[in-house]
Write a structure and sequence with these properties.
This protein has 8 helices and 14 strands. It has about 290 residues and is of the alpha+beta class. It starts with a strand and ends with a strand.
């Protein structure tokens, strides 16, 4: 677990006493009070005491997230007495929400904590009404476990394991390989995500088309680079992942959109991924997919 992290847009550094004014601002925002709770930090003295308590608690770790030099939020890692594993959390100033900062910052911490050969489980809790938090947890690969009672409040408990996180990363990279918005397609990446012998099958209404990795990549590389298909984006909108030992399957609902021969389209469909944990990590060995019928 690192003291600092750097992402494309952000820096994360462990909380210090110099962050007191920012923490006082953050914990008094309406979204913090509504979704996390009132901390009664109304004076400079109360703010100093609150931060001091956080710094002196070995079960609590806060990273302050900065955009350039401006503090905009926090990522937290807390071992709560009522949870079996550590609880990761995030909170941002209202002006910096809905811009991908929370996902970017949380992902970099998860990548450090879960990208290891030793399996780890992380938890996250959120109120039932905090829809934005729930959506982000699902994007990150957390799965709902159950509702828990904490004092007078009912919280939803989510969890993610090392294998689930690594598989989620591979699936997101797979989809991102085809994206041509603000970037060039990167289909060569599929050689890392997939085993060389991977079988890919497209299901149409009356037939099935079976591809090797090479015959799958070549026509799509041309389609995405010769002007036929432009401004293309494909991404996962929901998933169900089952992991048994070193084998895993993932049913993924996806959305794709772009301009085909200059005409805009948006379609949906289902992909069925099959992974195996190899000496190179989790790799795809089979994939079949079907677009929704129009």
């Amino acid at each position: 677990m690192q003291q600092t992290y750097t992402t494309t847009r952000l820096t994360l550094a462990r909380l210090t006493e110099t962050d007191t004014a920012f923490i006082a601002e953050l914990v008094n925002t309406p979204t913090w009070i509504q979704n996390i709770g009132e901390r009664n930090v109304k004076t400079k003295e109360a703010a100093r005491y609150y931060v001091e308590q956080l710094l002196n608690n070995s079960s609590v770790c806060y990273w302050v997230v900065r955009l350039a030099t401006v503090p905009i939020g926090v990522i937290t890692l807390i071992k709560r007495t009522y949870l079996e594993h550590q609880d990761i959390g995030f909170a941002f100033l209202p002006a910096y929400t809905k811009q991908g900062y929370a996902q970017e910052a949380t992902l970099t911490v998860l990548d450090d904590l879960l990208n290891d050969t030793i399996p780890v489980t992380l938890l996250a809790t959120t109120s039932i009404t905090n829809k934005s938090s729930i959506q982000l947890l699902q994007k990150l690969g957390f799965a709902f476990q159950r509702e828990i009672q904490v004092g007078n409040e009912v919280l939803q408990l989510y969890a993610i394991t090392t294998p689930k996180f690594l598989i989620t990363q591979q699936v997101h990279l797979f989809f991102d390989s085809f994206t041509t918005i603000h970037q060039a397609p990167c289909l060569e990446r599929l050689h890392t995500i997939c085993m060389p012998e991977t079988v890919l099958i497209k299901k149409d209404s009356n037939c099935e088309t079976v591809y090797t990795l090479t015959t799958f990549i070549e026509p799509r590389q041309q389609l995405l680079t010769d002007g036929t298909l432009t401004a293309f984006k494909e991404h996962e909108i929901s998933e169900q992942t089952t992991i048994v030992g070193n084998l895993a399957s993932r049913i993924s609902r996806y959305e794709k959109s772009g301009y085909l021969h200059g005409v805009y389209f948006k379609d949906y469909g289902t992909k069925f991924f099959q992974f195996i944990n190899t000496s190179k990590g989790w790799q795809l060995y089979a994939l079949c997919w079907e677009d929704d019928k129009k």
